[in-house]
Amino acid sequence: MKIEFRKVPFTPKEFQSGFNSVKIEGTFCKISSSLVKIDGMLSGKTPVTCSRCGEDDTITINEKINFLLSDGIYKPKSSDSDDLVIEIEDNMIDFDEIIQSELSSICSDYHICANCADSEFIEQEY
Ligand SMILES: [Zn+2]
Q1: Residues 14/77, Cβ–Cβ less than 8 Å
Q2: Strands 13-19 and 22-32
Q3: How far does residue 51's CA lie from ligand 1's centre (Å)?
Q4: Residue 120 Cα, ligand 1 centroid: separation in angstroms?
Q5: Which residue from 24, 90, 36, 86 is spatially nearest to 61, judged by alpha carbons?
């Protein structure tokens, strides 16, 4: 789903998007002429790779996401909060792209599969 930045309303509007088996649901609205606030929830399952043995694993995601989208280069003002800000380049907000980048950052996090977590636990006992 895509929406033009200038068409985003100031009253919260619901959106829904998905990528593979992960979906994102939430609301978005403009908070200033060049900032859009996104409040959402990522949920679903996504494949990840175990950082220890390299086996494929699946994790369940249930994560709140809150961030701001800036129309072009973001120039922080002292009054702005330190929310995560994503800069939009072509005046189009692409929810699919947002969910994909959120997901890839979740997947690139350090992850240990259940097998490795078990053996780690046993090692610690000795
Ligand atoms: Zn593993």
Answers
A1: no
A2: antiparallel
A3: 7
A4: 10
A5: 24
Q: Output the pTM of the full model.
A: 0.75
How many percent of the chain have pLDDT more than 90? 45
Of 4, 19, 5, 1, the closest CA to residue 101 belongs to 19
Give me ligand 1 centre to Cα 113, in Å.
4
Tell me the three-class secondary structure of 24-60, residue by residue.
EEEEEEEEECCEEEEEEEEEEEEEEECCCCCCEEEEE
Q: How far is the CA of 19 from the centre of ligand 1 (A)?
A: 25
* 99 CA distance to ligand 1 middle (Å): 26
- Which is higher by pLDDT, 126 or 119? 119
Burial tier of 30 (Cβ tally within 10 Å: 0-12, 13-18, 19+): buried
Whether the predicted pLDDT of 37 surpasses 90: yes
CA of 57 to the centre of ligand 1 (A): 8
CA dist 41 and 125 (Å) reads 38
